[in-house]
């Protein structure tokens, strides 16, 4: 089963220089059909105007993935970290027993656009952890939620390793197009579109993912 959420179908919230496009129910927006997808309980695309940001707030017992698409994300937390996250880097936080952090666009002139995903770990909360990872390969990053994040960069202009990728789905897969356009089998997906695929958990489902020109895709295998 494949369910698609087009970019224009997302719920949009605005305020204080922040525009957020929500994949799932959030805040005042409640959709009983979109409460999450397995361990994935949050998926937002944030656009922060220069100087805008999220003031210090707390998280507990979640994993937080932040993927910058444009601009620079400035992170500060109660462990004394002050980090800048640039496009192509993945910020990974394990909230564990609790963290407090802020996220802002410290630029005086450039907008910041980033994807943020929250996952529910499958193990009891432990000490918080933080990593800032460089270029994430197609092999992916394993998460405590029993999931794997992969970043695929595709291009159909020339035959090379990234032109076609067979995607195997044993249980569930959450796919988001961050740039460009792709084809998942016969299904066209454009920038900002999300597809959720559920398998039967026994026989893997294989779909071929093709780029329609240069494209980037985030995959969460659950």
Q: Please give the count of helices.
A: 0
Taken from the alpha-carbon principal axes, the silhouette is globular
Question: Quick one: biggest sheet?
Answer: 7 strands, antiparallel
Unreliable residue stretches: none
Report the C-alpha radius of gyration, rounded: 17 Å
In short:
This protein has 222 residues and is mostly beta strands. The chain has strands at 2-5, 11-15, 18-22, 40-48, 53-59, 63-70, 73-77, 82-85, 90-94, 99-104, 112-119, 129-133, 141-142, 148-154, 164-169, 172-179, 181-184, 187-190, 194-198, 205-211, 215-221. Helix content is 0%, strand content 55%.
How would you characterize this protein structure?
There is one protein chain. The chain has strands spanning 2-5, 11-15, 18-22, 40-48, 53-59, 63-70, 73-77, 82-85, 90-94, 99-104, 112-119, 129-133, 141-142, 148-154, 164-169, 172-179, 181-184, 187-190, 194-198, 205-211, 215-221. With 222 residues, the protein is an all-beta fold. Strands 2-3-4-11-6-9-12 form a 7-stranded antiparallel β-sheet, with no helix packed on it. A 6-stranded antiparallel β-sheet has the order 1-19-16-21-14-13, with no helix packed on it. The protein has a 4-stranded antiparallel β-sheet with strand order 5-10-7-8, with no helix packed on it. Strand 17 and strand 18 (187-190) form a beta hairpin.
Topology:
Layout: E1 2-5, E2 11-15, E3 18-22, E4 40-48, E5 53-59, E6 63-70, E7 73-77, E8 82-85, E9 90-94, E10 99-104, E11 112-119, E12 129-133, E13 141-142, E14 148-154, E15 164-169, E16 172-179, E17 181-184, E18 187-190, E19 194-198, E20 205-211, E21 215-221
Antiparallel strand pairs: 1-19, 2-3, 3-4, 4-11, 5-10, 6-9, 6-11, 7-8, 7-10, 9-12, 13-14, 14-21, 15-20, 16-19, 16-21, 17-18, 17-20
């Amino acid at each position: 089963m494949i369910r698609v959420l087009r970019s224009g179908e997302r719920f949009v919230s605005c305020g204080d220089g922040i525009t957020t496009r929500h994949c799932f129910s959030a805040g005042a927006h409640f959709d009983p059909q979109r409460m999450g997808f397995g361990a994935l309980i949050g998926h937002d695309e944030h656009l922060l105007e220069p100087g805008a940001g999220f003031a210090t707030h707390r998280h507990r017992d979640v994993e937080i993935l932040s993927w910058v698409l444009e601009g620079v994300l400035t992170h500060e937390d109660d462990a004394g970290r002050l980090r800048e996250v640039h496009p192509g880097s993945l910020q990974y936080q394990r909230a564990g027993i609790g963290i407090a952090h802020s996220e802002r666009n410290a630029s005086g002139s450039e907008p910041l656009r980033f994807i943020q995903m929250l996952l529910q770990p499958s193990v009891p909360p432990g000490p918080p952890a933080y990593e800032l990872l460089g270029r994430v390969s197609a092999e992916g990053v394993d998460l405590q939620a029993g999931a794997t994040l992969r970043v695929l960069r595709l291009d159909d202009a020339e035959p090379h390793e990234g032109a076609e990728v067979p995607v195997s789905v044993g249980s569930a897969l959450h796919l988001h197009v961050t740039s460009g356009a792709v084809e998942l089998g016969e299904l066209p997906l454009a920038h900002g579109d999300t597809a959720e695929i559920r398998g039967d958990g026994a026989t893997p489902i294989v779909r071929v993912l093709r780029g329609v020109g240069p494209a980037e895709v985030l995959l969460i295998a659950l």
